[in-house]
Amino acid sequence: MTPISRRVFSGFALGFAGCAGVGGLGSMAFAAGHLRLPIGAMRLSRVLERTLRDGSMVTVSRVWEVAFAEQGRGARVSGVQMEAKVDAPASLAALARIEEERSTAQMWPILLSEDGRIAAAGDSKSAADINAALEEAERMIARKPMPGNAQDVRMEYLRTVAEAGGSLLEEMPPDLFFPIGTNSRVERELSLPGGISGNFVAIYEARASAAGWLDSARREVSTSVEGSAQRAVEIWRLDSA
User: Fold this and answer.
1) What dihedral angle (degrees, nearest 10) is formed by the CA atoms of 110, 50, 5, 61?
2) Pairwise CA distance, residues 65 & 83, whole Å
3) Could you read off the pLDDT of 89-132 as tens digits, one per residue?
């Protein structure tokens, strides 16, 4: 088994499940507070592509059937997973099977506030902060013993920072279901020991449909250390079922 553990797959799929079938016409809508919600079944999909240290790639694709319902001044989103597929190198075949079979029920239901932002989810934790994640990665690097080989040191730095950045993808964007139209880019130079330079970039772009709910959203997290890089790209879509 390679040094890559199941952490390779952590955050590759956020949890979903909770209703048996949902039917209806997703193109119609009703109001909850001032939100315009889809009626009936919708198809939510997530594709996450992540490069590994050796340059190979892991792709995790999931599809859920989801339904929106009024709850207070906001909304409640329930859903059931319909498909799960993992494409990974042959050396990770066993882990890929585990990930495909893993239940994602723990995140449902998802509650939305009156402006459409995610207010709570089944096993929600506080939103990850980019600066806090990177600062913790720098502290870990500073206190852990490093290999003697310079290339191994660079790769260990890259792995540690890439894992910290990847943790940002373990939570849904707050405005996922109802994008507010504000894209973002965060770029930070990394302070690494031994004069080694690094860079971290996180990008988020989202587009709403004509009805106001999600059309597509894209997040990218990339880390580079002395010419070596790791990258993760996540794409969400919401369509009529």
Assistant:
1) 50
2) 10
3) 888 888 888 888 888 888 889 999 999 999 887 654 444 566 67
